[in-house]
Amino acid sequence: MGTQGVLPFAVDDPLLTTAEAAEMLGVSRWWFGELVRRGRVGPCARIEGRLRVRRSVLDRYRAEQAGDPEDPYLTYEGIGAYLGVSSWTAGELVRRGLLASTRIGRRVVVRRSAVDAYVQACTR
Questions:
Q1: d(CA 33, CA 27)
Q2: Is residue 99 exposed (0-12), middle (13-18) or buried (19+ Cβ within 10 Å)?
Q3: Tens of pLDDT along 9-51?
Q4: What pTM, to 2 d.p., does this model score?
């Protein structure tokens, strides 16, 4: 049997509007547009002047952002709970450059392995 008549995508993988995609990612429509323009989310389709994206593309993006489950991202609150300090102190460690951080949307996050490396450096 040839490939004629076979859909190149799963039927349960619908095209989403920018509003639906932004809601799925938990960001604003503007920020979703920025993610597309910066090449972080894609491929996308432009249909009748409107941007559309497949749900599987967003699932892949979210999996990339989540990272390794053994080495999760921590927010300031998560760092504070992990180290037993306040979230403000955790933020100061990031602002001073003592913890390597990444910005995802408006949030600043740090890998748990970076926090562990910082603790190791402090205990030597």
A1: 10
A2: buried
A3: 556 788 898 999 999 888 899 989 898 988 888 888 888 888 8
A4: 0.52
